[in-house]
Specification:
The complex is a heterodimer of chains A (316) and B (295). Chain A is α/β, with parallel strands linked by helices and 316 residues long. In chain A, 40% of the residues lie in helices and 19% in strands. Chain A has two domains: 4-159, Rossmann fold (3-Layer(aba) Sandwich), CATH 3.40.50; 181-314, Rossmann fold, CATH 3.40.50. Chain B has helices at 10-31, 37-41, 43-53, 77-87, 127-141, 159-170, 210-216, 229-244, 278-288, and strands at 68-71, 147-152, 176-182, 220-225, 250-255. The chains are: A alpha/beta (316), B alpha/beta (295). Chain A binds chain B through residues 44-45, 47, 49-50, 52, 54-55, 57-68, 85-86, 88-90, 93-95, and chain B through 68, 110-112, 118-123, 125-126, 128-138, 140-141, 143, 159-160, 163-164, 166-167, 170.
Chain lengths: 316, 295
């Protein structure tokens, strides 16, 4: 089991050996994001900007005008909040091939607490025109997404997790931009998730099955641009959609799914689980996942409660 | 061909700068909105750059070997557009489309729309970081071109500027020059202090020694009157010497007058933006255009 940050750095080193446009621009966090691996392998293509995230983005943009395709290395929270304006004007509006690697996303960032927990990134980044937003689930998909992004023309935000999760995708998995992935067949309840949370939701579905609730698990790696047809096909026949994300329930995956279903006139109840308009806190991963309802066990409990509330006949 | 043109006589540059000022006021007036004071304060600096210093080719605005220019104070876009039009990047008549729908000449510079615009700008404080990235990329790619960036003095209140000031020196970017259009006024600012400020509001950097701060960061600092072509050219020569000696980045602190060149716009924050009435436009025409100038 490998953490996405390790996979990110290893994949970049691999791609950079064949593609001399790959660079890393770091904000003094290379030994956390694992960009230090890249720095050792390609010192000439590693730029240490120091603790100045807005400047990092501007410099990466400037480098992109010379044909480089730089990756930014910092915690996601500093990109999507502190450096948002340069991302907006210099990267998104210009369609620059700058890759925003949002490391340490979500709640689980080594007990750093709410200042460093980025629980609004998907909502913020998906509102930005021209930006591709991807949240891979495991090490297999993270590697595929990094490779895909290196070859992509235009800006990409990739949500990466600090710690490893149980892999759910086969090693020969092919990432396809926009498409959702059905991780588990079942129904009539559809559990829709994104990023590493999809792995915990997959485990939750196994717990639910033991309780007699058969749930389908749909992983949405591409927050934007979403292939809506792919999502609609994945939830076809389900009578209750429950979104679960390591993110605020406002404007992220839950918003995306609700908007998509509404736009297509699909009248299925959508329950949104995640951070309920609240900040989190410092604490070990297991504590946070339990307290904020994102561990497999807590997801199973919350899904059961939602299903009982809306679909009493589905449980026997 | 991308090259530096022969430096025209100062008289011709002064005529071009007056034309730029006329196009700024006339275009903004016809468009019924836009900035005046900032475009006028930097007009001489931009004319000097585009008509004698930059190695460029209006026929090939994307030539990879061209010198780069970043207008960090993007709200002065009409000043840049006027210079680009006079230099031949697009027809002067196109200035009439400024700020209109479906125009290549947006309210703030858009590198994806306007020939000759190397970097989009508008949100203040970002241009120097972009220029640092360009100059760093040139260094890594072994390219010889020089990168220029014009910043406003009000804009220097943005923290991101200082992040870039620091980086430029750390990376030893001798191929980078900033020009600060120190026109002494911003959109609103603070009340003037009698005997201390040049104009009708407080100077953005009146309380601090800006050249000393920049020297402290390790930049080569050249202080000039930004309306004197002789001083501007002398500064360009000093920039070249600093670049050739590998001294790191250089900055020209150009003391200018906001709204310079037109009697009723000069030295007042009230013409940060605005539209002239018919009488004012006629007065400006008389002050700026001579017989034979295209109006």
């Amino acid at each position: 089991m490998k953490a996405q940050r390790d996979v990110w750095a290893e994949t970049l080193v691999e791609v950079a050996g064949l593609d001399d446009t790959v660079m890393v621009v770091d904000g003094d966090l290379a030994n956390s994001t694992k960009a230090d691996l890249f720095a050792k392998a390609f010192p000439d293509r590693f730029v240490e900007v120091g603790i100045a995230e807005q400047n990092m983005v501007g410099i990466a943009f400037g480098l992109s005008t010379l044909g480089y395709r730089p990756w930014l290395s910092t915690f996601g929270v500093f990109l999507t909040h502190r450096a948002l304006d340069p991302i907006r004007m210099l990267v998104s509006q210009t369609h620059a091939s700058v890759r925003l690697a949002g490391a340490y996303s979500g709640l689980l960032n080594g007990s750093s607490g709410k200042t460093h927990q980025d629980i609004e990134d998907l909502a913020i980044m998906r509102a930005m025109p021209n930006l591709t937003v991807i949240a891979p689930v495991d090490e297999v998909e993270a590697a595929a997404v990094v490779r895909w992004s290196c070859a992509h023309d235009g800006p990409v935000y990739v949500r990466l997790a600090r710690d490893a999760v149980a892999p759910v995708l086969p090693v020969d998995y092919m990432f396809e931009l926009g498409s959702v992935v059905v991780l588990r067949h079942g129904g009539p309840v559809a559990l829709v998730s994104t990023g590493v949370q999809s792995s915990r939701v997959f485990d939750a579905a196994e717990l639910l099955a033991a309780q007699g609730i058969d749930a389908r698990v749909v992983h949405v790696p591409t927050i934007k641009p979403l292939d809506e047809t792919s999502l609609l096909a994945a939830i076809d026949g389900c009578t209750h959609v429950i979104t679960i994300e390591e993110h605020t329930i406002i404007g992220g995956l839950g918003g995306l799914v609700a908007e998509t279903l509404t736009s297509h006139g699909i009248a299925v109840p959508v329950t949104r689980l995640g951070l309920a308009d609240s900040w989190s806190e410092s604490g070990p991963n297991e504590f946070l996942l339990d307290k904020y309802g994102l561990s497999a066990g807590r997801v199973a409990e919350r899904v059961t409660a939602a299903v009982l509330a809306d679909l009493p006949t589905a449980v026997h | 061909m991308t090259e530096r043109i022969e430096r025209p006589p100062v008289r011709e540059l002064e005529r071009l700068a007056r034309l730029v000022r006329w196009h700024v006021l006339n275009t903004v007036t016809q468009s019924k909105a836009g900035h005046i004071g900032g475009p006028l304060s930097m007009a001489d600096l931009l004319v000097a750059l585009y008509f004698s210093e930059l190695s460029i080719d209006p026929e090939h605005p994307d030539d990879p070997e061209r010198d780069r220019f970043v207008l960090s104070k993007g709200h002065s876009a009409i000043g840049l557009y006027s210079v680009l039009a006079l230099r031949g990047y697009f027809p002067i008549d196109e200035l009439a489309s400024f700020d209109h729908g479906d125009s290549r000449l947006q309210g703030h510079p858009d590198m994806r729309l306007t020939p000759g615009v190397d970097v989009s700008s508008g949100s203040l404080g970002q241009g120097l970081s972009a220029a640092v990235g360009i100059a760093l990329g040139a260094q890594k790619r072994g390219r010889d071109f020089h990168t220029w960036v014009v910043l406003g003095d009000g804009e220097l209140q943005e923290g991101m500027v200082w992040e870039a000031v620091n980086s430029a020196r750390r990376f030893g970017l001798s191929n980078l020059t900033a020009i600060i259009d120190l026109n002494g006024l911003q959109q609103y600012g603070w009340a003037a202090q009698q005997g201390r400020d040049r104009f009708d509001r407080s100077e953005p950097w009146g309380h601090a020694d800006l050249p000393m701060i920049l020297r402290g960061y390790g930049w080569t600092v050249i202080e000039i009157n930004g309306h004197s072509f002789a001083e501007i050219f002398d500064a360009f020569d000093q920039v070249k010497r600093a670049a050739e000696s590998g001294a790191g980045p250089s900055v020209i602190v150009a003391r200018t007058e906001k709204g310079h060149g037109i009697s009723f716009t000069r030295g007042t924050y009230k013409w940060h933006n605005g539209v002239a009435d018919e009488t004012q436009l006629a007065l400006a025409r008389a002050e700026l255009l001579t017989e034979g100038d295209q109006s």
